[in-house]
Amino acid sequence: MPSYQTTTLGFQRDPTAPLADEYRRFALARGWGKKSARYKKERVNFYGAAVLQDFTRFWGDNASRLDAWQELCHFLGVHECPASITQCKKALKHIHVNLVDLVDARRRNIKPKIFTSRSELASYIVETRKIFPKAKAKANPLLKQFLIVVFGDY
Question: Distance between CA 68 and CA 136 in Å, rounded?
Fold first, then answer.
């Protein structure tokens, strides 16, 4: 799957580096100042493309695959492996995780930070600007499970 950063702009991500570090490297190579409008706009595009690409590589994009749902459950610490997609969705419903951090954690083989509530996660997203654009979720139905309203537009 071609990605925003590798095809369009000739950028190769380091598969072991956090996405925030990779974005800084990406923006620096293009001469974008950290406070510029371009830097802020392109960060959302970068995160959207990188998360979609990595999430799909790790868990696929077929919401009908029980094994993908079970792997997500296992990775996110659901101890009892659900036996159906419906049970997986129920188990994941109360797990609040930032999608950028989720794929970062999987890429780096560490556990992602789990938030206690949607509002706590939303505050973290606003603070860190680790935003996954909701329009990108349409390309991968498994991602929809983790979307929350942050800016009042869902």
Answer: 19
